[in-house]
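Hey, I was hoping to borrow your eyes for a little while. No rush at all, and the record is pasted right below.
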Amino acid sequence: MMQENILGTEKISKLFIKFSIPAILSLTIAGVQTMVDGIFLGNFVGTNAMASVNIAAPFMQLMIGMNMIVGIGGASYIGRSLGEKDFKRAQDIFKSACLFMLGLSLIVACLGFTFNQQLATFLGANEVLLADSATYIKILALFAPFISFSFILGIFVRCIGKPNVFLFSSIASFFANIILNYVLIKQLKLGIVGAPIATGLSFTTSFLIAAIPFIKKSSVLNFFTGTFNLKFTGQLLYNGSSEGISSLATAISTFVFNMAFMEIAGEDGVSAFTAIGYISLFASLIVCGISAGIGPVISYNYGAKLDSRVKQMMSLSCKVAIVMGTILVFTIFLFGKYLILLFVSDNQAVLDLALHGSKIYAFTFFFNGLNILFSGYFTSIGDALASIIIAICRGIIFILAGISILPQFMGISGVWMTVPVAEILTLLVVFFLFKQRNLKNTSSLIED
């Protein structure tokens, strides 16, 4: 099998480039799909339409969270199974993940389509934003199965040594989204209706391309062999649960920040947070891409008991994350205004709020890269609990504590400062967990 030779024998630096770069590009492209909606709506419809998309964003984030639970959890389990040369188990895990995802995405599609008004209200839409937010959720929900499979197949394709497939599908999806947004929003004047149609169809394009390798029966993972196994499904869901918690945390924090900004600065505050959120999403997806790309490599080598290769990959990845984080901070300080102008071109109040916030929020990128990498590392080696702890700390506990305390003393600056503080505190937790794991491994070696 091609992937066994590549993942277990090829030079680590080559594997890093071969797997992480396509994953970075793929995740970044996939993640900015709603950003494309924001750019077109913000420039051709208005900042309220862009804010409506951000109000609806937790619905999309929850869908992505489901995909990440199944995809990352399954890929970790599949990778370790392939490393142990258990190809039957790997195929059964793949089949179980696909069937479970199909059922879950159909349920989400029905709920989102039927209860869009209630969801938009729950997510914080006021009278000004409710109709547009509900419409966005209703239409996007129809594409839930295609969005889900575009993600999980894109993750699984790396397990069979074909990381470029998801890259090609993501590029096609990205250009489809731009063209469709231009036609539906700019030319046909469909406004908020056109944005989710464009995004949904672009993810459908990605799904159709990502599915191609799994149609071949000769592939180690394919749609036709293997059986559904409830036990494997439970294990992959537990293993990937930290990724789901991360997405749930993103949804919760977006909701909390929207509420905080709505209270302090109204719709302008939400629009400013939306613009910064898009920039932050792009930056975070770079490190998430590294984590997703190296995940199958770590899982395989961990399963094959090639520990030195696991350490080499993590060391290289951490160095890259630190350098990229530093570059991002300086980029925001030097060129933040021009980045924000991509989303806000006609509202000086929103621009001023976003410029102020970006210089505080930027410090997030010094720390969040390492947190994301180590959360992915623990998932890849099957230590779901450690990964869950990191996800809960950085996305829920420290965020809720910060948003409750900091604005009391610092006003709107305290809201912006919540995320950097949460990342710093989480990094301390990461160091503790990694140290504890090393002590446990050392103890095991001594006992052996």
